[in-house]
Write a structure and sequence with these properties.
Length: about 230
Amino acid sequence: MKKTLLLCLLAASFTACQQNNNTQAAVAEQATKPSTPLQVVNDTIHLVQPDTTLTTTLMHTLSHRSSIREYAQTQLDNETLSTLLWAANGINRPENGKRTAPSAVNAQDIVLYVTMDMGTFVYLPKEHALQLVCTTDLRKAVAHTQDFAAVAPLSIILVSDLTKFPFDDPQRATLLGAMDAGYVSQNIYLYCAADNLATVARGTMDKAAIQQALQLTDKQIPMLNHPVGYIK
């Protein structure tokens, strides 16, 4: 009995040390990687190539996935935002345009909007760039009744374009769009956990204000949003 207890304690201690070492390695890796400020040129933010060489293990990432509601004020750099958006719903198979996140009948209905102090942009996966939609900072509309979300340096809005589904069944399309948003949301969570960022998935937002500002139709539905920032 004592031997078994001792072995359990040793195993737990080893696991804790490994997780601590992985966390320290992730922080060190983040501190040494290139950092380029976001810059708008002709209403476009050209993103650098995503960094697909992160060494964090899947098990470490899963063990650190969590909802975090406090954020440092520092704006994400180009490298971090580039990899975040690619991980969320970028193209990982250029030969056929398929994405990092699955979608029902490969509709690819989820469109990502990034809102921050310099305006609100739509993510273009093929160009791997952000295109200005409006100069309005919609973080307060995204936060709505939860002020903590407005403090994050940016928020990602997940919109399902129901017209992408090859059938005329609004109820079914809405259900599948919500499901597809969930896949993208988890990708955001996992990348944030892997790269030492803070985020939380939220359904709360002023959808009417967001739809009006982004000039969305009644078939383009904001499903979820993710405030994202460096860990405070």
